[in-house]
Amino acid sequence: QVTVRDALNQALDEELERDERVFLLGEEVAQYDGAYKISRGLWKKYGDKRVIDTPISEMGFTGIAVGAAMVGLRPVCEFMTFNFSMQAIDQVINSAAKTCYMSAGSIAVPIVFRGPNGASAGVAAQHSQCFAAWYGHCPGLKVVSPWSSEDAKGLLKASIRDDNPVVMLENELLYGVPFEMSEQAQSKDFVVPIGKAKIERQGTHVTLVSHSRPVGHCLEAAAVLAKEGVECEGGGVINLRTIRPMDIDTVEASVVKTNHLVTVEGGWPQFGVGAEICARIMEGSAFNYLDAPAVRVTGADVPMPYAKNLEDNCIPQVKDIIFAVKKTLNI
Amino acid sequence: ASRVVVASRNYADFASEATFEIKKCDLHRLEEGPSTTAVMTREEGLHYYKTMQTIRRMELKSDQLYKQKIIRGFCHLYDGQEACCVGLEVAIKPTDHVITAYRAHGFTYARGVPVREILAELTGRKGGCVKGKGGSMHMYTKNFYGGNGIVGAQVPLGAGIALACKYFGKNEVCFTLYGDGAANQGQIFETYNMAALWKLPCVFICENNRYGMGTSVERAAASTDYYKRGDFIPGLRVDGMDILCVREATKFAADYCRSGKGPILMELQTYRYHGHSMSDPGISYRTREEIQEVRSKSDPITLLKDRMVNSNLASIEELKEIDVAVRKEIEEAAQFATTDPEPPLEELGNHIYFNEPPFEVRGPNQWIRYKSVS
Q: Which Gene Ontology terms cover its molecular function (chain B) (predicted)?
């Protein structure tokens, strides 16, 4: 059993060791061991050159990281949370994502932007936004969103080895959660391919598609529903793992079998990940197999309030997923 | 048979080199500055002249092509500022790195991209230096990172390139340029801080052409001493219309950086004859008289020409021959740029990613797909 935090730490350690062009920069990543302790022990092991504490200057240090990548280094640029990435978003989109295209392939930007994304607990409106839809919108970026420790380790390693700018949306509430890690997943060359979803649990009545923490909620919902005789595909669904490029084929193949689709995400509904999934299902072969309209479960369409009872009702809960499934199955 | 006299003078009549007095640079946090004399050989002078004249004529040709609507979108011309990009290039090594903003055609040429590839990029043809994918503001070549459209964003990028130079330990320097308008961007001050803190081998260069679009420096900056704006970073203010001044100052700055002392800042005082871009006539916020005065008293090419002729480094006829050769090169390049075909439609999907197996990209509707190869 390995926590997501330790899985990320292992990934960073292994990739720093494997390729000397890889380095980590961000606020508090070195001497503080990381604001969320993801980089614990790494500065002690690799020193100032490979693990760099930056001043509080997101736009500046993100641009510096992108510039370094353009010359062949492989930076891992940490945002303490993705809320702060908004200050630097021009560098992520205009300098990192678009450069390969604008230069007709002559300049690569092998950079990883990572950090916690979405709601935490009690951190209120300015610290709780989900950026999956924002970054997932842009060609030139890859966007990944791990759920389990295996996802976290494998996707971070794959992202670092990828020659393109990758945004990795982690989740603070998952950092302390332990997951089983197979022998294979503990090898130094274990990577999870970017762009491929994982079927967490098989089912026949409904397809639940999710990413990040809600995958766990979907699994719980599926367990409850299974007791009531409703098998949900995915053991919590299909775990997208990658937001862009999205593996819609896996979703389609599942919907063809189950005839029902429920998407689940933490972000806001309008223009969200679920909206994109529904649009693509409409456009593809699976539409003709739907027995009911596809349904979305999302964060509530408000800035995140502070009070616990309010906050709890702004995040998709297991009961909300179960309700949506029953609605779409008309039971 | 009759013989035609091609040149009235023999090369042996010319001096091989001459020494010139150049303006002293204003200094900030520096005990000493660049030398106030510069030696220029005949070969150097001819090279500087030809290069600046090529850029001048290339920009004027771009103006023409834009008015004929053969170049579209944004087009920010560099005529008047030639001494800056050429003075920089002759003072640095090919292995050094350069990054600038959108007024980039001169740098693109100086860093080695042929005129025909620059013009063909402006006209959006497949023979453009980036296959027509980038346009005026996004041209790249080895050790030249554009061409950047977002004002100020290139500055942190440049410091990042410098960080990589230091990381790789190859004694290379990054020359990071920005304008007087960009000098007020917050991310530049964030970059100054990190560059100084980490002693990055970055030479910050502010090309002060007195106007950020239509806003004069007096109306944009509480302090127009751009060479001091780096605060804890030493700076020098340089006459950007004098190529020798730019050259000497750049050598000084490059040496400073290469010795591991950290970043340094150069302000080049220069001037652009054109407006901000081709959609700006450039006379609503400044007077025609001002433009004319700079042209007649401070033109960088004229300054060089006068120096060379007066010091017997070259003859007027010889320089005229260079003008003719340059004109010819530009005409041929323009011919290429107007006749080369546009990129094939397939190019639309390419280069989204680097080193990636081919995949499909969506077009304007779900039935239109483009293949994307790296």
A: metal ion binding; pyruvate dehydrogenase (acetyl-transferring) activity
